[in-house]
Amino acid sequence: GAVVSQHPSRVICKSGTSVKIECRSLDFQATTMFWYRQFPKQSLMLMATSNEGSKATYEQGVEKDKFLINHASLTLSTLTVTSAHPEDSSFYICSARDRQEIRNSPLHFGNGTRLTVT
Amino acid sequence: GEDVEQSLFLSVREGDSSVINCTYTDSSSTYLYWYKQEPGAGLQLLTYIFSNMDMKQDQRLTVLLNKKDKHLSLRIADTQTGDSAIYFCAESYGSSNTGKLIFGQGTTLQVKP
């Protein structure tokens, strides 16, 4: 089945630094990828939609200058958390849909990245 | 706005059936999904159902959809300890092909031996 690889799986960084998270579709091409954030014991909240070759679409309340998204190819999207603060500590999960699949076909999720900002 | 609600916790004994319930608000959703999340891991797609279906069965999993009441359920037959996880119900965002999903808050399933 379709595999989405997310890297790193876990990162600890100091406050004020930037962290880049990669999301790759391994055996399919994805024109659209989605970035979600999950707080402990809570549901997933969509942060932004990453579109290959164009600007990302951010959900209301998500700071685009803080969460930089780049979707440079059909198999890679990156999320950069800039000037990270402890409140950015969370579990970030990406998802992608195979461009060959039909409308509203299921999303394939990565294994997530646990970010801890000290 | 759109909302998905689930009960937070369910405890069953190994071998029993588990039924996890979900209600949603967006009647234009074309697909509804069930995902499983084990501790520290991402989401694993379990099954999904198209909105014009009433039921879908896949091995131990049975999904029932009551579109009139906007109610979705997931039944796991012969529940095993390996089924212990958080189960998320999700609906597609409207009828357009945005690919966005709206998730419920997740139901923690505890399976006792």
Description:
The complex is a heterodimer of chains A (118) and B (113). Chain A is mainly beta. Helix content of chain A is 0%, strand content 50%. Chain A contains no helices and eleven strands. In chain A, strands 2, 4, 5, 6, 9, 10 and 11 form a seven-stranded mixed β-sheet that branches. Chain A has a four-stranded antiparallel β-sheet with strand order 1-3-8-7, with no helix packed on it. Chain B has 113 residues and is mainly beta. Chain B has no helices and eleven strands. In chain B, the strands form two sheets. In chain B, strands 2, 4, 5, 9, 10 and 11 form a six-stranded mixed β-sheet that branches. Chain B has a five-stranded antiparallel β-sheet with strand order 1-3-8-7-6, with no helix packed on it. Chains A and B meet through β5 and β10 of A and β4, β5 and β10 of B.
Most strands sheet of chain B: 6 strands, mixed
Overall pLDDT confidence of chain A: 90
C-alpha end-to-end distance of chain B: 40 Å
Given the structure, what is the number of helices of chain A?
0
Identify the overall geometry of chain B.
globular
Helical region count of chain B? 0
Quick one: biggest sheet of chain A? 7 strands, mixed
Order of helices and strands of chain B: EEEEEEEEEEE
SS content category of chain A: mainly beta
Intertermini distance of chain A: 37 Å
Describe the structure concisely:
The complex is a heterodimer of chains A (118) and B (113). Chain A is an all-beta fold and 118 residues long.
Summarize this structure as a short list of keywords or feature phrases:
heterodimer; A: 118 residues; mainly beta; seven-stranded mixed beta sheet; four-stranded antiparallel beta sheet; 0% helix; B: 113 residues; six-stranded mixed beta sheet; five-stranded antiparallel beta sheet; 56% strand; globular
Task: Write the SSE topology.
The complex is a heterodimer of chains A (about 120) and B (about 110).
Chain A (H helix, E strand, L loop, with lengths): L3 E4 L2 E4 L5 E7 L6 E7 L5 E8 L5 E2 L8 E7 L2 E6 L8 E7 L11 E2 L3 E5 L1
Chain B lengths: L3 E3 L2 E5 L4 E7 L6 E7 L5 E8 L4 E4 L2 E6 L4 E6 L8 E8 L8 E3 L3 E6 L1
Parallel strand pairs in B: 2-11
Antiparallel strand pairs in B: 1-3, 3-8, 4-5, 4-9, 6-7, 7-8, 9-10, 9-11
